[in-house]
Amino acid sequence: MTATCPFFAGSATAVAEPEYTPYEAPAPLPGTYIADWVTLEDLTRDPFPTFAKLRQEHPVPYVPAAGRYFVTRYEDVHTVDNDPDTFTANERGSLMKKSMGHSMLRMDDPNHAVQRATYGNVLKPKAIKASWRQVFEESYERYAAVLREVGPGVEFVHHFAGPYAAENLRRVMGFENATDQDMIRWSQTMINGTGNYADDPDVWAEAKRSYDEVNTALDEMIAHYWEHPNETLISNIIHTSNGDEVTLANIRANLKMSIGGGINEPRDAITTIMMGLFGEPEQRAAVLDGTRTWKEAFEEGVRWIAPIGMYPRQTTREVELGGTVLPAGAKLGVVALSANRDESVFANADRYDLGREKQPHLAFGGGVHFCAGAWLARSQVADVALPRLFAEFPGLRLDPEQQAVETGWVFRGMTHMPITWDA
Fold first, then answer.
1. Quick one: 64 exposed, middle or buried, by C-beta within 10 A (0-12, 13-18, 19+)?
2. What are the angstrom distances between the C-alpha of 40 and each of 207, 300, 410?
3. Strands 397-398 vs 331-335: parallel, antiparallel or unpaired
4. What is the pLDDT of residues 331-374, one digit of tens each?
5. Rounded to whole angstroms, how far apart are CA atoms 286 and 298?
6. What pLDDT, in 10s, does the model give residues 130-157?
């Protein structure tokens, strides 16, 4: 390479990262329903009874504990996703901006489109088939060996689901200078910041530490891939961007966002789908004998428990939504966890049911912000991990001697999942 990379941290075109600016949203208008009985503790433990009550009685309430209006019904979420002029993704005072920087996820088009174009085809089906499917198979072999070594009773999230998703993402992104455990730590601490509605200073301190570590690691890999391009995401970004519309600060923020979602989505999808199949023996048998497919099991799993449970939007003007008049500047929590259990769309919505009438779920968002990593998650989980786990660990099931734990509402999944099998 003879040209100078525009993204080296000390280069002239490298742009300083913007400072976080707090934002005080306008007070709810008179007549707004205030759901002051909703607590973050209840949402974290089990949000579904709360969301069911809100969908039925007040589908767009103001929730003081979260400092925002919740959008709980499927139709209203669809409206928000497809009207960015009224419901902007560029939220002021965003916790994600504070935790990860100003990524494309907090931008609207045309700025969002410019950023997203830098990902090219790296995360799409053709690249997955050509490059990443073999990576997923290699990761499976590595972490399935860990399960066998520890034996029946092993804790599954920390010994397989988390590191499997992290190692896959590490190799797709191209962080040769990091480990699976680095990726897990970065992801979890920055996600904790994104969901830090309690404003815990210790949570912010851990998120900032990871923020700085990712910057350092990324800057090293940018220098490496400028001289040695390959098929990874980092390499693709720096060789398809010119440093004018997409800055170093943009790249850092976009990749931090991808580290967050790129681990927790497949990790939590694996475990919650397994929980669904454990609880429905007939459906599990149908998947194992080929009557149903693993892709069907995946789509119903992320419908049943959306790994990314809530994402923010902000109104640009006064507007009525779900019977509530929202002032301009109102902060919204678009609750995919709730919309995916809207009984007007999904019959018997609380049940994991492969036989339900097919309806598009909202687990990967919608509109221009439909998750760029959706194909990657589907392949890791439905093409590789689940089929091989259930084939190679006969009688795979929860360990009845230990308690499994599911938690979260901004992000939701299993945090403790002991499993056993017929050894």
1. middle
2. 20, 26, 10
3. unpaired
4. 999 999 999 999 999 999 999 999 999 899 999 988 899 999 99
5. 14
6. 999 999 999 999 999 999 999 999 999 9
Interval 213-261: pLDDT, tens: 999 999 999 999 999 999 999 999 999 887 678 888 999 999 999 998 8
What is the chain's length? 423
Q: Specify the 3-state DSSP secondary structure of 222.
A: helix
* CA proximity to 164, closest of 271, 82, 60: 271
- 């097919």: which residue's tokens? 358
The CA-atom distances, in angstroms, between 80 and each of 86, 203, 331, 343, 355 are 8, 30, 12, 19, 29
Cβ-based burial of 120 (10 A; exposed 0-12, middle 13-18, buried ≥19): middle
Alpha carbons within 13 A on the beta-carbon side of 256: 34
* 332: DSSP letter: E
Cβ pair 29, 325 in contact under 8 A:
yes
Reported as type and span, the H/E element at residue 49 is helix 48-57
Query: Helical H runs in 132-200?
Result: 133-150, 156, 162-173, 180-194
Q: How many CB atoms lie within 10 A of CB 117?
A: 14
Tell the residue number behind the tokens 């590490």, with chain if given: 170
Terminal C-alpha separation, the chain: 54
> 6: Cβ–Cβ under 8 A, 6 or more apart, which residues?
13, 14, 241, 242, 243
Distance of alpha carbon 261 from alpha carbon 264, whole angstroms: 5
Q: What DSSP character marks residue 368?
A: G
Residue with tokens 């969901």, as numbered in its chain: 195
The answer to whether the CB of 84 falls within 8 A of the CB of 317 is: no
Among 274, 272, 278, CA closest to 303: 272
CB 86, CB 315: distance < 8 Å: yes
Determine the residue type at 255: L
Sign of the torsion formed by the C-alpha atoms of 241, 243, 249 and 250:
negative
Output the six-digit token pair for 278: 């454990």
Q: How far is CA 210 from CA 22, 192, 225, 232, in A?
A: 21, 11, 22, 22
The structure's pTM equals 0.93
Structure tokens, 266: 């497949």
Helix (H) or strand (E) holding 312: strand 310-315
3-state secondary structure of 22: coil
Answer whether 39's CB lies under 8 Å from 50's CB. no
Residues 6+ away with beta carbon under 8 Å from 246: 114, 115, 118, 237
Q: CA separation (Å) from 186 to 156, 191, 255?
A: 20, 8, 11
